[in-house]
Amino acid sequence: MTDFLPFTRPSIDEETIADVANVLRSGWITSGPKVQALEAGLSEYFGGRPVRVVNSATGAMEIALHLMNIGPGDEVITTPMTWVATTNIIINAGATPVLVDVDPATRNIDLDLVEAAITPRTKAILPVDLAGLPVDRDRLYAIAKKHNLRVLEDAAQSQGATWGGKRVGSFGDLCSVSFHPNKNMTTTEGGALVMNNAEEARLFEKWRLQGVTRFPDGTMDCDLPGGKYNLTDVSAAVGLGQLKRLDAFNARRVELAKLYFEQIDPALGLTMPVWSDDSNWHMFQPLLPLARMSISRGEFINRMKDQGIGVGIHYPALHLFSLYRARGFKEGMYPHAERVGESTVSLPLFPAMQNEDVSRVCAALRNVLLPVLAA
Ligand SMILES: *Cc1c(COP(=O)(O)O)cnc(C)c1O
Predict the structure, then answer these.
(1) What is the DSSP string of 134-165?
(2) Using an 8 Å Cβ cutoff, are 195 and 52 in contact?
(3) What's the 1 CA to ligand 1 centre distance in angstroms?
(4) In angstroms, what is the span from residue 155 Cα to ligand 1's centroid?
(5) Which 3 state secondary structure label does DSSP give 308?
(6) How far are the Cα atoms of 42, 295, 314, 368 from residue 298, in angstroms, in the given order?
(7) Same domain flag for 312 and 365
(8) How far apart are CA 140 and CA 108, in angstroms?
(9) 96 shares a domain with 202
(10) What is the pLDDT of residues 170-224, one digit of tens each?
(11) Total number of domains constituting the chain
(12) Is 146 marked active-site?
């Protein structure tokens, strides 16, 4: 019996583990030189723009809403097909998430629907690059410019993806990335915000740590109610080891995605993700042909597990969670997101996978699906 293949797994090398041990022995384990080095490395990665790190992308986006002055009475336009962090932060800021449906092919926010959702209260657009496939940045920023809106790019899944030959986050307005263990690079937990200028970065630093500014003479002041979001040097050491390997990780993901496209049996009736050279292939997510299947998605996942293959779900359409139903959202409002949410499955995809692992997954798909498909 071969080992169980999870849908994702981080790759941490021995050099990074040794560097974490060095930090732990150093006597300084919270935010310090490693955080500064990680921010400098990320700034270089994002074309020289200012970058600050925090202990989650959720936190980075919460602070981003402060930077954009978004609060009660404001609306933010976003997608129902994302991790619920994207919309929870809007509610927590006292603002209103305005959802528009996704494009059924890309599964990203349908930019054709965005302009109709703009009202005098709209402050920002919050696009998500699902599975690492970038939202059309040209159209996005044309809409934002025309209506004088801010943009917060939720690039939690798309670090290293490109648009028009440029890295996501190296241009545009605010852009957040995640270093959760499932993402394309990790700090165990963590996230970062790419910003426009030093002024925003200074304000970010205040929101990140209790609103405090320290002066050269040793005195301090607090002029806003900041939180506790700082990343530790222990985490930053992990991130420094990961950032060095990120391009290689992403290149390997692209190779594995190509193998899936070559090897998944078309007779299984899966709806494939759209191919894009711009994607960092954060996830590989076909849609199941549920109408033709005599078993549910849950049973499909159980049977894949019996075949030694881990399968994830990213994500149920979030407007059907009870918090959102209580706010008036219901079935039928976003039919494309609902269909994706019901039928999506995330197949194993992570840099340490071998080519043979893709073949194993494709064989398991045949074993599980062929017997349960109606003609
Ligand atoms: C992972 C993720 C987040 C949250 O990132 P954390 O670092 O876990 O807070 C937000 N949005 C999307 C689209 C994500 O995939």
Answers:
(1) PP-HHHHHHHHHHTT-EEEEE-TT-TT-EETT
(2) yes
(3) 34
(4) 8
(5) coil
(6) 39, 8, 14, 12
(7) yes
(8) 12
(9) yes
(10) 999 999 999 999 999 999 999 999 999 999 999 999 999 999 999 999 999 999 9
(11) 2
(12) no
If one counts every other C-beta atom within 10 angstroms of the C-beta of residue 303, the result is 18
Domain coverage including residue 346: 246-372
3-state helix, strand, coil in the chain (%, to 5): 40, 15, 45
Residues lining ligand 1, judged by CB closer than 6 Å? Answer: 56-58, 82-83, 85-86, 128, 154, 156-157, 178, 180, 191
Indicate the pTM of the whole model: 0.97
Per-residue pLDDT at 82: 98
| Residue 9 located in a structural domain | no
How far is the centre of ligand 1, averaged over its atoms, from the C-alpha of 183 (Å)?
8
Residue 5 lies in a domain: no
CATH of the domain at 194: 3.40.640.10
200/342 same-domain check: no
Are 325 and 212 in a shared domain? no
- Residue 208 belongs to a domain: yes
In the chain the beta strands, taken as DSSP E runs, fall at 51-54, 75-78, 96-99, 122-126, 150-154, 162-163, 166-167, 174-178, 191-194, 212-214, 220-222
Whether 1 shows a pLDDT value over 60: the answer reads no
167 and 26: one domain? yes
150-154 and 51-54 beta bridge pairing = unpaired
Q: Residue 88, CB half-sphere, CA atoms under 13 Å: how many? A: 11
